[in-house]
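Structure request: Hydantoinase/carbamoylase family amidase, Lampropedia puyangensis.
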Amino acid sequence: MFAETTIAPTCSLAQDITPEITLASQWFDTLRERSRSALGVTRASFGEGEQMAHDLMAEQATRLGLEQRVDAAGNLYLTLPGRDRSLPAIMTGSHMDTVPDGGNFDGAAGVVAGMAMLARWVRAGLVPQRDITVMAVRAEELSWFPAPYAGSRAAFGLLQSHELDDCLRPDTGLSLFHHMQAAGFAPERVRAGEKQLDPARIHCFLELHIEQGPFLVQEGLPVGIVTGIRGNLRYKHSRILGQYAHAGAEPRRSRHDAVMAGAEFVQRLEALWLELEQEGKDLVCTVGQFYTDAKVHTMTKVPGELRFTMDIRSQDNALLLEIDQRLRVIAQDISARRGVVIDLGDFTNARPGLIHAGLHAQLLSCAAALKIPHVAMASGAGHDSAVFSQQGIPTAMVFVRNEHGSHNPDEAMEIADFAEGLRVLIAAVEHIDEQG
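Returned structure:
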């Protein structure tokens, strides 16, 4: 399966995609126009914007004569039937929601690419050997519900019951269960763990996505072939307890300063990062929040409490768990010396998404055969592909260059770069289908 073969650039589908790029441009423009917000675009999970995007793709699927299915969690499946429907399907796709006032391409590029690919098959009058399905996933963005990969995990019966009730959308204060039910879906079936997708019926999953960092821009390359999806440790409720005191009267030797302790902890986190990076380890570390209570702390008080968060990511989950232990040792050392209590709290652990070696090699071969400049690279952000990979489904990803990063209104993917990524996706899917 997915032998690492050299691919000749002979397939007609991967060459002339001008009509499909025109369609994709129109779909991107429509998505933007119908979801404009104050600064960018907003397509809230289980909100009007996300539903609009799903409806648009369903409308295009009707025009193309594709089969359609919506599962209990609201995920949308658009399928070009194959000649032998007993074979497991090739799947592609991504999510359609955005962060508040985000960009137009994060997630949507993967669904639009899949639909453009199917439009090309239909226009050419070709029928694949096996089904090819585009999945528009619900609720990938954590901005709306703090449940990672809510839509894709629900599809595999993995969304926990408490998440349906405890995850509240910040703009409404209402639960994921409520929003799923109000949108006309069946959260009670999701709560029961009913599987909407059977991993045994999926031959592979390929996801095209904009790069959400600057690497491809810095390298001057339009396409990246992903080597792995970083997992993470997330500490949401870390805090340091010291002792409030007068800023002028308390000597240094008797202070229990929570902020100074926090500053040392962050410096030692960075030192650990540098140490591991020099050893060739894949790692990124972020302290996203770092604050005192403005209602209690003032300029003239030694701070007695500090709260902070950490997001630590790597393709190596064993390394992540090792870092947790080392950070707790560091916290104990600082606490003892500075007379404070550093409580890192519990963490959540999203395991890395492994990329299938054979699929990765095929994507590289396709890009080379099509003479598309590219590079192999890790994905720093999480993607629904990780969920497919964790189900034992062969999974791979294509990144498309994108100016100005992601999760902001200034996302600026060039349609010419998108076309290059689409050509790689089409060539890979065609080759996989030919392999049987």
